[in-house]
Amino acid sequence: MTELRTLPVPEGLDGLRVDSGLAKLLGLSRSVVAGLAESGDVLVDGAPAGKSDRLIAGAWLEVSLPSADRTIEVVPVPVEGLGVLHEDDDIVVVDKPIGVAVHPSPGWEGPTVLGGLAAAGVRTASSGPAERQGVVHRLDAGTTGVMVVAKSEFAYTALKRAFKERTVDKRYHAVVQGHPDPSRGTIDAPIDRHPRHDYKFAVVTGGKASITHYETVEAFRAASLVDVKLETGRTHQIRVHFSAVRHPCAGDLTYGADPVLARKLGLTRQWLHARSLSFEHPGDGRWVTFESPYPADLQHALDVLRDQDR
Description:
The protein is α+β, with helices and mostly antiparallel strands. The protein is built from seven helices and 15 strands. Helices cover 21% and strands 28% of the residues. The termini are far apart.
C-alpha cells in the first residue's frame, strides 16, 4: 500500500535538488527520496522527476510514499564473525565485523547486527523503531569494532541520553597517510552532504558542527596510527575530517587515499576501527570499558608498515 502526497513546491525549496528539497519537506532522508525518484514515485507537474532535477516554486508535486504501517523486518540470520564481548540483563556489547550493517534498512540486503543477535537468541529492548529496536548508536557497514545494544528498556533510555549528552567515550584507531601536524590536535570543521556526489560527505560551509580530537600513537615512514576521540558523531566524520586535512585513512579510495599504498598494505577498505567504548553502565552506574582487537586485514596492514620501517 502507498500514500499519495500532493502539494505545490514551497518558495523556500525553489532551486533545490529533488532529493534535498523533498527530504526537507517530507522529513525523509535523501537516500529514501532518491530511491522514490528512481522508482518513478516522484512527479513534478505530472512528469517523473530525477533525484538531481531542480525544484521550481509553485510546481505541483505528487509523491507516492510507502504506507506508514510498513515496517522492515529483522530476520534472524547468523552473522559470521559477530563476537559478543559482554552480555548482561541490560546490555550486549558486540564486536562488529566488516560488511555488516547495524540494522535493516531500505536497499540493504546484507547481514545485520540485530539479525545476528536474534539468531543467537539475544533479545533486545523493544524501544525504538521496529527495525532498530535497542539500537542506541551505529557503525558504518564498512567500519569494524565495538558497539553496544540495549536489552532492557531502562538501558535504552539511559544510553540514548548518554550518547546525546556526549558522556560516552568513543575511541577509534585509524591509520592515516602521512604525518598529521601537529601530532596531537583537533579538527573542527562542519560536515554535510558533498555538493556534487550524493554518496559522499564533505567539509561544507554551513554544515553540521563536527569536532574530532586525535593523537598520534605510532608514526611510520608513509603513514601514522592515530587514536581518535569523537566529540560529535556525523556520518563518515573521521574519514571526511582526515581527508580534509590531506591525511586520508589508508585504503579509503572514496576520500582520496593513495591506491598504490592501499595495494601494498593489502587494504580493500579504509583502515578505521572502533577500538574502545566506555560509558556508565545503566544497571549499576559503574564506569565500564570494552575494547575490540584489530581484525586480521587491519593488523596485516600495520605489520606491513612496521616491517617497511625496519
